[in-house]
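Trying the structure run again after the queue cleared.
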Amino acid sequence: MGNTAIAVNGGNMVNGLTSDINITERGSDWYWAVTAIMGASTLAFAGLSFTKPRTHRVFHYITTAITMVATIAYFSMASNIGWTPIDVEFQRSNPKVSGINREIFYVRYIDWVITTPLLLTDLLLTAGMPWPTILYTILIDEVMIITGLVGSLVKSSYKWGYFTFGCAAFLVVAYSVTWDARLHARSLGSDVSRIYLICGVWTIFLWFLYPIAWGLAEGGNVISPDSEAVFYGILDICAKPVFGALLLWGHRNIDPARLGVTIRDYHQDPALSSSTQGPHGEKLGTNGHNTTTGTTTGATTGADTTVPRATV
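Done. Tokens:
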């Protein structure tokens, strides 16, 4: 028996509405292949997290969440679920894109509105960026995704207004990743700078291609839904599983505490992980493996007074 997902889930009809321009069985097969890649990556990333202590798993958890959400989204698209028909602005004579309306997979944007903030969190935490900047960048990213969704659901030329808003938001995100965060990463050491540069450049390069895919698919109705599936699928594979593998490989010898990410395990004293500096400016241990066994403060007489601290 072949792939019957499209027929089982209503074919080109949803909620009583029909679509003229849809994915075919080949498009569904491709979506299933991407689903398998995302699912396998999720299991791999989750498994790798057990090679680290719980206090060092934050990047594994975030990266696992990215591909997990993508797995569900691609399962939906492979099953021909999570779309709605929208009248096209440009009616083409090409039989692959001819018709009045085209299926738009809104589930793809649900994926992106969750996973792109997680991708940025992975990157910006790697650079040791302050939380206000991270949250602001994520907000701009959400504007980018939501305007793309709204634009894809508009049948008139006003969709290009939303496209412009989304591109402007993307440029702000790109600036934060390629300039501000790069400088922060460089200050943390060559190993951090190297992995950040690799993953940051990779991500922004790929994200520059998404507006092109949007313009050819949802925006301009130039390529067929099957071609759209391949275009977005390749980008998502590169931007999620490949990105995740590169990031986790780069983090293999980096203590998250170096990046300002200090996490306390349940058996540790909260006082030891609440701060990396004592009340008099003395350096305190972190909650990672490379912790100190004591702090040294200088007395006014020139003698050193060592305060014993528990090893965590």
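The CA atoms of residues 152 and 240 lie 23 Å apart. Worth checking whether this holds up in the mutant runs.
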